[in-house]
Design a protein that fits this description.
- The complex is a heterodimer of chains A (137) and B (139).
- Chain A has six helices and one strand, in the order H-H-E-H-H-H-H.
- By secondary structure, chain A is an all-alpha fold.
- Chain B has 139 residues and is mainly alpha-helical.
- Chain B has one domain.
- At the A-B interface, helix 1, helix 2, strand 1, helix 3 and helix 4 of A face strand 1, helix 1, helix 2, helix 3 and helix 4 of B.
Chain lengths: 137, 139
C-alpha cells in the first residue's frame, strides 16, 4: 500500500504544480522580479501548502507510527552552518537563472519540452557531483 | 514595482493541493516530501528507492492526468538558451544537495515543522533568486 501512496502523492503534487502554475518558469521568474513587473502569486502557493500541511503535520507526528510503514522518518537536522547558506545561495542563483526548481522541472518532463529536459539532466549531474565529492548536508 | 498577472486564488488552491500531497505522504508513509532529496536518492540510495521512483513517476503523470481530465493545455515559457539551462540545472542540483533541500523540502516541509534551519535556507534562496533576476534583467 505504501507504494501506491508514493505514486499518488507524486501525482497530487504534480497536479498542484500545474494548478498553481508553478510549473511555468515564466511565472516563477516574475515572482522573483520583485523590483520590476512583480507577480506575487507564488507566495500564495507556499501559504496554501503550509495552511494545509503544517497543522496536520503537528497532529500526525504524535501518532505512534505512520499507517503503512513502521516508523516516521524525516530530517531532524538543526544545523545552521556554511553548507546551508552556501548551498541555498547556489540553489537560489540557479532558480533565478532558469525559473525552475526540482519539482516543477521533473513534472515538466510530461510536456516533452527539450529545454526543461536539458535542465533536468543537468540537475541530476549536479546531484551526482555533490555525492561524488561528498559535499551533501 | 508593478504588480502583474496576479492569480492568488489558483495559486492558493494549487498550494493546498501540494499541501495535501505532503500530508498524505507523511500520514501513510511517515516521510516528508523534499523533491531534491527524493530525486537524488532515487538514483543513488537503495533505501526507499522504489518509493522514490514511484513518487517521481507520479510527478510526471500528474500534469498528464490534469490535461486528460480538464482538456486544458499546459503552457510554459522557458528560456531558449541551452547553455543557461545547463548552468541553472547544475546550480540547482548542487545547491539543493549541499543545503539539504529545495523549495519543497525546506520551503514547505521544513517551514511547516517550524525548522529554523529551513526558514533560513528559504530566506537565503529567495533573496539570491531575487538578486539573480535583478542582475539578469536590469544590468
Amino acid at each position: 500500500m505504501n507504494k501506491l501512496i508514493s505514486l499518488l502523492a507524486g501525482i497530487i503534487f504534480g497536479i498542484g504544480l500545474v494548478v498553481s502554475e508553478m510549473i511555468n518558469p515564466k511565472k516563477v521568474l516574475s515572482f522573483l522580479d520583485v523590483f520590476g513587473n512583480w507577480d506575487p502569486s507564488l507566495a500564495f502557493v507556499m501559504i496554501g501548502a503550509l495552511i494545509v500541511s503544517s497543522p496536520l503535520f503537528h497532529l500526525i507526528k504524535n501518532n505512534k507510527k505512520p499507517l503503512f510503514t513502521d516508523s516516521f522518518n524525516y530530517s531532524k537536522n538543526k544545523d545552521i552552518n556554511n553548507r546551508l547558506i552556501i548551498g541555498s545561495s547556489i540553489f537560489g542563483a540557479g532558480w533565478g537563472l532558469g525559473g525552475l526548481c526540482p519539482g516543477p522541472a521533473i513534472s515538466s518532463i510530461a510536456l516533452l519540452n527539450i529545454n526543461s529536459i536539458t535542465f533536468v539532466v543537468a540537475m541530476f549531474v549536479g546531484f551526482y557531483l555533490v555525492k561524488f565529492f561528498k559535499l551533501s548536508s | 514595482m508593478n504588480i502583474v498577472n496576479f492569480t492568488p486564488i489558483t495559486a492558493t488552491v494549487g498550494g493546498m493541493i501540494i499541501g495535501l500531497a505532503v500530508v498524505m505522504f507523511f500520514l501513510f508513509n511517515g516521510r516528508l516530501i523534499g523533491i531534491s532529496g527524493i530525486a537524488a536518492n532515487a538514483l543513488s540510495e537503495k533505501n526507499n528507492r522504489f518509493d522514490n521512483l514511484l513518487f517521481l513517476i507520479g510527478l510526471v503523470i500528474g500534469p498528464i492526468l490534469y490535461t486528460f481530465f480538464t482538456n486544458k493545455q499546459i503552457n510554459i515559457t522557458i528560456s531558449n538558451s541551452l547553455i543557461l539551462l545547463i548552468c541553472a540545472g547544475l546550480l540547482v542540483g548542487m545547491g539543493t544537495r549541499v543545503s539539504g533541500g529545495c523549495t519543497s523540502g525546506h520551503g514547505i516541509s521544513g517551514i511547516g515543522r517550524f525548522s529554523l534551519r529551513s526558514i533560513i535556507a528559504t530566506i537565503t534562496f529567495m533573496i539570491v533568486g531575487i538578486l539573480t533576476v535583478l542582475i539578469k534583467n536590469y544590468i
